[in-house]
Design goal:
By secondary structure, the protein is mostly beta strands. The chain is about 5% helix and about 40% strand. Among the domains are: about 25-35 and about 70-300, no CATH class; about 370-465, Immunoglobulins (Immunoglobulin-like), CATH 2.60.40.
């Protein structure tokens, strides 16, 4: 039967505001580490409504702050009319005696009221509820006010070496003064302050006494405090994840204890409350006992729903609202849901290592909810270690059977993705078609057989990142674009995709079937073929979804293969088209790694204004359009490489009515490498040009390539702008039957604006001997400067000069300079209709010019075309008046033509040398500057 509430004798019932004048000090010691926790079976409860996924909060564990010391709360004469409650602070060394008043530690307390009543049947589940309420002053143990305010001061339960049964209890005695049964100690459980409802004789919440608080184990772990410490340093064996929190007596809106309170200013109040099992005989009931607590500041504002409150109709939401939407902690059995809920399935109330008693269920949440990452339209397989059971742990009371945990998960996510789960908690997730750069949610629940997590508590967030549309031309039609069901045509992917998407094309059946209508990309899109690994951003890093394989073909039977937008990536493909392979204007930055790019009736590349980070194995083009190019780069900077595969002409074959490779960087800086390409039957093989107003430049490397049958020139380099260029031409073959120029560099830079440098080595030039074409020409015309090394080249067919070096057209303030080093070259020509010289050195085209030609000729084999009817030489030179002509190593007179000629001949294997108009010859010794790159 229910008993009456015990009241103190002759005083009547003491309200929470009554001051008894008992000053109590909290001693100076901090808290100890906790253990995993679990709650008891609960009665049936309402099924909570699922909150909107966007409202579901994440309540991270918040470490406790400063520990102020140990306090012992003592209950005496329990069950009698004169039940008493008291408190004393304790030294860290033990629980006997009054603690010293150490300045700056402790908290000042006064007893306000206490009470007790019974309910139920003795020995058959009957309980005694008791409480003691204390007023709290923000002052240290010696009564000196603290100069800073306190927030959420909490008394956290603790076991020490002196407490019994691995509980917070000590001095556990019966009425006769003998020790109470120690096995009862774990059964003394914390509650809110409770009172007896006179209308129904049942327990009810004590208004203003709802100070019970629960925590997670990590929150009461001293090593995770905001100022980390240890249990030993706090004078405890362990801290339990529950306690009692101080409230402000003047307002329900906060728990602040103001700084610097007056001498009698007790701004806080706290109620300690427990329930004790009634024994079959009253003489066996605990008559007195103490409980140990650690006083700790808590930076987190939280209210707790007690086990009793679950059955009484929870008032916790109102308390949370009064505190400004505070977090709501609740145990297994709660009917609560919603964004404020921090669900703590169970808390351990006894047991330093193993669980000896608990509130709530038989499991705990062991960590924060995992956040998973996947790629849009791409399935995710989640192992059990990250699955639905990964953050829950079954924890039974010692001696009881550990329950098997089960889960319930939906077949679809909040956004409509597919979820397939396995019994061990592992699952697969396939995002909804078209999802990308969104967060999806999988709501699920876990049960220990008695307790099920509330709706919205357990959620797996899946960050669905970069969206990929998958295309496979031999997949089952039509597909939906996910990796599990690729689309079968590229046009289908184009129609559903958006800016910044990835379009991934499998090798499929190896043909262009379903991929032969071309594609126009959108801004930021990436067109990736299986020729490269599909590596996609994921979380803070990247993930490889598909390894590299064979390149698929993307083509267009009636237009360009790929038309760019801005900032695209095109990789892992072969691209073909009719009017063009790859086209783009104002294309931003193009990143490319391609196999073959080809066009049957247009340019392989037609790019205007943008930046490249591109590599391709080969470029093939046949462009019959008048003046058209096989490869056109206008206003293009960055890096472009055509690599070939290591065999002749494997970099592709280009034919165009205009120019094979046309390079006009404008204001851009381009690094362009060609390896093993072939340009044939074009107007010009390769042309690089900048205009006088251009500031762009090129670093051009052409190697192991063939230029054949090109009408105007094999390679022409015509820099007139202000940029400084670098040229590396090595191992190439230039030949034709029309008498055109082989390789020509002619620069008309502004004065002092640039220094071009070139290395022309190991090339072979064989031109027709009719016409007026030089094998190689290097000429500075006007201002600017150039430094060239021509080494180990073979020129055995030409129709004017084998090698022509000149600096000309300079004037005061615009005197250009050419530094040319010729080393180890072979220049000759077979019998021709005209007499031909081997090497031409020209310093000035007219008297009065002010250019400088520095010519360092060494170990060359040069000869003119023998013609009985004319004079020809291996080397012919001419210096105009006003110019400077430098011959490194020259000794003797530089105005003596015979001396100069002998000097050149002696250094070049006895080559014949002659001087035109020796009257203006004034050669001088000096140093030619070689290229430095």
């Amino acid at each position: 039967m229910n008993g009456r509430e015990i009241r103190p004798p002759r005083r009547g019932h003491l309200g929470l505001g009554t001051v008894l004048g008992l000053g109590l000090l909290l001693g100076c010691a901090p808290p100890a580490p906790p253990v995993a926790v679990t709650p008891p079976p609960t009665a049936s409860q309402p099924t909570p409504a699922a909150p909107a996924p966007t409202e579901t909060p994440v309540h991270p564990d918040v470490p406790l702050a400063r520990a102020l010391g140990l306090v012992e709360i003592h209950f005496d004469h329990v069950g009698s009319d004169d039940m008493a409650a008291s408190a004393q602070t304790l030294p860290v060394s033990g629980i006997s005696g009054q603690a010293l008043n150490t300045p700056g530690t402790g908290i000042q307390l006064q007893l306000a009221s206490r009470g007790s009543f019974t309910t139920g049947t003795r020995g058959a589940g009957g309980l005694r509820y008791l409480y003691a309420t204390f007023r709290v002053r923000n002052a240290d143990g010696s009564g000196v006010p603290y100069s800073s305010s306190r927030q959420n001061l909490t008394f956290v339960a603790a076991s020490t070496p002196s407490t019994i049964g691995e509980t917070p209890l000590s001095t556990f005695k019966k009425f006769d003064g003998t020790a109470a049964n120690a096995a009862l100690a774990p059964q003394v459980l914390p509650t809110h302050g409770m009172t007896l409802d006179p209308l129904n004789g049942q327990p009810a919440l004590l208004p203003g006494g709802e100070d019970f608080q629960i925590f997670t184990e990590s929150e009461v772990d001293p090593t995770r405090f905001q100022t980390p410490t240890t249990a030993a340093a706090l004078g405890v064996t362990r801290l339990f994840p529950y306690g009692f929190v101080v409230r402000n007596v003047g307002t329900a809106a906060n728990r602040t204890l103001p700084a610097s309170p007056g001498a009698a200013q007790f701004d806080g109040v706290v109620t300690f409350a427990v329930k004790v099992p009634l024994q079959a005989s009253a003489s066996d009931d605990p008559f007195s006992f103490s409980m140990m607590f650690q006083a700790v500041d808590d930076p987190n504002t939280r209210v707790t729903e007690s086990v009793e409150e679950q059955a009484l109709g929870s008032q916790v939401a109102a308390r949370a609202t009064a505190l400004g939407s505070a977090e709501v902690a609740a145990l297994c059995g709660t009917p609560l849901t919603g964004p404020r809920l921090k669900f703590i399935p169970s808390v351990t109330t006894a047991g330093n290592t193993a669980r000896l008693a608990r509130l709530g269920g038989n499991f705990v949440l062991t960590g924060p909810a995992p956040v998973l990452n996947t790629v849009g339209n791409t399935g995710l397989n989640v192992a059990a270690t990250d699955g639905f059971l990964s953050r829950v742990q079954a924890v039974a009371v010692a001696g009881q059977t550990t329950p098997s945990l089960t889960f319930s998960a939906p077949a679809t996510s909040t956004r409509g993705g597919d979820v397939t789960a396995q019994p061990d908690g592992s699952f697969s997730f396939n995002p909804k078609v078209g999802d990308g750069n969104v967060t999806d949610t999988i709501d699920y629940s876990v049960s220990d057989g008695n307790c099920t997590t509330p709706t919205g508590v357990l959620q797996t967030k899946v960050n669905v990142g970069q969206r990929v549309w998958y295309v496979k031309n031999d997949a089952a039609a039509p597909g939906d674009g996910r990796r599990s069901a690729p689309l079968t045509t590229l046009s289908a992917a184009q129609s559903v995709s958006g800016p910044n998407d990835i379009l991934y094309v499998y090798t499929g059946n190896g043909t262009a079937s379903g991929q032969n209508a071309g594609i126009t990309l959108q801004a930021g899109q990436k067109l990736i073929g299986q020729g490269v690994a599909l590596t996609v951003p994921l979380g803070a890093g990247t993930t490889t979804i598909e390894p590299a394989g064979a390149r698929p073909m993307v083509g267009n039977a009636a237009g360009a293969g790929v038309t760019l937008a801005t900032n695209n990536t095109v990789s892992g493909l072969n691209v073909s088209g009719t009017t063009g392979g790859l086209r783009g204007t104002n294309f931003g930055t193009l990143t490319a790694n391609l196999g073959t790019v080809s066009a049957s009736a247009g340019p392989a590349l037609a790019l205007d204004t943008g930046t490249l980070d591109a590599t391709t194995v080969r470029l093939d083009a046949a462009n019959p359009v008048a003046g058209g190019a096989g490869v056109s780069l206008t206003g293009v900077g960055g890096t472009l490489s055509v690599t070939g595969t290591g065999t002749a002409d494997s970099g592709g074959t280009v034919t165009a009515s205009g120019t094979g490779y046309q390079i006009k960087p404008g204001a851009a800086a381009l690094q362009f490498t060609l390896d093993r390409v072939k340009v044939q039957n074009s107007g010009t093989g390769l042309s690089f040009r900048t205009e006088a107003s251009d500031s762009g430049r090129v670093s051009l490397t052409v190697r192991n390539s063939t230029f054949e049958g090109n009408g105007s020139a094999g390679i022409e380099l015509l820099p007139d702008g202000s940029g400084s260029n670098l040229f590396t031409l090595t191992g190439n073959t230039i030949r034709n039957t029309t008498g055109s120029t082989g390789l020509a560099y002619r620069a008309q830079h502004a004065p002092g604006s640039s220094v071009d440098q070139g290395r022309i080595t190991g090339n072979t030039v064989n031109l027709a001997t009719t016409g007026s074409g030089n094998g190689m020409t290097v000429s500075v015309q006007g201002g600017g400067a150039a430094r060239f090394l021509l080494e180990n080249n073979t020129i055995n067919g030409y129709s004017l000069y084998g090698l022509s070096l000149s600096a000309q057209g300079g004037s005061a303030g615009s005197a250009g300079r050419l530094d040319a080093t010729l080393r180890g070259n072979t220049v000759s020509t077979p019998a021709a209709a005209l007499p031909l010289d081997g090497v031409n050195l020209l310093s000035g085209a007219a008297d009065g010019e002010q250019n400088t030609l520095c010519a360092n000729l060494d170990n060359n084999h040069v000869s003119g075309n023998p013609d009985p009817g004319a004079v020809t030489s291996g080397v012919v030179l001419r210096q105009r008046s006003g110019t400077t002509f430098v011959l490194p190593g020259l000794t003797g007179s530089g105005t003596n033509a015979s001396n100069v000629q002998s000097f050149i001949s002696s250094r070049n294997n006895g080559a014949s040398v002659r001087t035109r108009s020796s009257a203006t010859l004034n050669a001088q010794a000096g140093t030619c500057v070689e290229p430095s790159f």
